[in-house]
Specification:
The chain has 136 residues and is mainly alpha-helical. It has 3 helices and 3 strands. The protein has a 3-stranded mixed β-sheet, with no helix packed on it. β2, α2 and β3 form a beta-alpha-beta unit. The protein is globular, with a radius of gyration of 20 Å. The termini are far apart.
Length: 136
């Protein structure tokens, strides 16, 4: 009986530890090197793209194209990752990392200030590779 109580007690402690670990939030914003998600191109200089044509996973949906910066491998295997960005039915242009870092970020900071968006919830990917987005 003591063994069963020990097993259940250990399981309860482990689940409580896991539950508290999942409550940890990480916020990454536009301008951060670990930001992946939708970019507002607006008045930005012409983006350098990974592919010249938009990628569309689900045909038949009419939606405006979106520009995304995604981690390496996501563009190549877009069918496996489009749902993370809620973009399977949209035409998507993937921007090159060097354009994001060398052109987009400095222009964004010039117009919004160097600290705009940092430390707040929501625009970036929490783990630096695909969650939290910035594409609503």
């Amino acid at each position: 009986m003591k063994i069963i109580a020990f097993v259940f007690g250990t399981a309860a402690l482990a689940s409580a530890t896991l539950a508290s670990a999942t409550d940890v939030g990480v916020s990454i914003s536009v301008g951060d090197p670990n930001f992946y998600g939708q970019l507002d191109i607006g008045n930005m200089p012409q983006p350098r793209l990974i592919y010249p044509q938009p990628v569309i996973i689900e045909r038949g949906v009419r939606a405006a194209p979106m520009y995304l910066r995604v981690p390496p491998g996501h563009a190549k295997h877009w069918d496996k990752h489009c749902a993370e960005y809620r973009a399977c039915g949209r035409p998507v242009y993937f921007v090159q990392d060097d354009w994001y870092e060398d052109v987009y970020v400095p222009t964004y900071r010039k117009h919004h200030g160097p600290d705009h968006g940092h430390g707040g919830p929501g625009n970036g990917h929490g783990k630096g590779h695909g969650h939290g987005h910035g594409h609503d």
